Known about the structure:
Oligomer: single chain
CATH superfamily of the largest domain: HUPs
Largest sheet: 7 strands, mixed
Helix content: 25-40%
Shape: globular
Distance between the termini: 42 Å
Structural class: alpha/beta
CATH architecture of the largest domain: 3-Layer(aba) Sandwich
Amino acid sequence: MTDFSLAIVIGRWQLPHLAHHDLIQKAFDTAERVVIVIGSSFRSRNPKNPFCAHERQAMLECMLNDEQRQRVDFLYVRDYFDDERWANAIREGVKAHHHDKNTALVGFKKDQSSYYLEHFPEWTYVNAGSRIDTGATAMRNVYFGESSVDAALTVMTPYVHPAVLDYLRAWSALPDYQARRDEHRAVLRYKEKYPGPYYLTADSILEVNGHILLVRRGGDIGHGQLALPGGFLDGRETFCQAAVRELTEETRFRTLATTMATALKGKALFDHPDRSPRGRLITHAFHFRLETDELPQVQGDDDAQEAIWWPIERLSEVEGELFEDHAVILDHFTGFMGR
């Protein structure tokens, strides 16, 4: 006999382990139906988010029996780096399919990262507890680390459901596995090279005739993903000067400084601690809007493979290809996520 009509379980599930399994089982014991929220959905892959939402759903479904699969729904939710907007997105997603339910929020307050559980006072909190002392970060470090796949999965066996281990073994045969493994190592090298507590960067959002100028990244981190032109501040330049310099260096876009000053329509600071797996990168983004008869000629340069004018009305098509939190930055200035 369950106490609630509906139980909500929230996580990123990158990657699912037995503590997650216990949490979900508690939800099924608590309510007639269960909604599993998959956070950090619609993001590009990176070492902290190596699996797409549908891959995480598949792994979670591996841990369920047939009867439980009939009682579960999955809700994909973006990262907004705005707690209120994120919580409202979950509320609205739940309400869209489950009206006026007696609802429980099933969770485990493991550490400070569990603060999100406080954002839903209207739902009855149910403490799931935990019998497994592990975390997804440790599992990712083993799976994408230096050892072979067989050795990694052997180490993970006490902590990961057998069906998920089978999934991970099969997934390791795909090109995405080697790409994530290479990037995992690249991020470790990056952190060794840049060990400071934080670094300052600047990004440009250049809008011309309803298009945004994007670059396709080279290098080892975010290789091939679409990004805003940007980079680190030099010693004696302002954030805006750095944004314009990086714009020029990466796309060969050139115009007068006075033209860019007139074109500046807005700016914003992006400093969420989780915006980059490389470490604490704090960026100031500048939105420029130019009116011209034609889109200016651009070309990828420096560490950019190519430069691309992309229509704002089609940004949702490439949301999953945008580097790190650049979708969040673009949404701030264009509102494309609400389209």
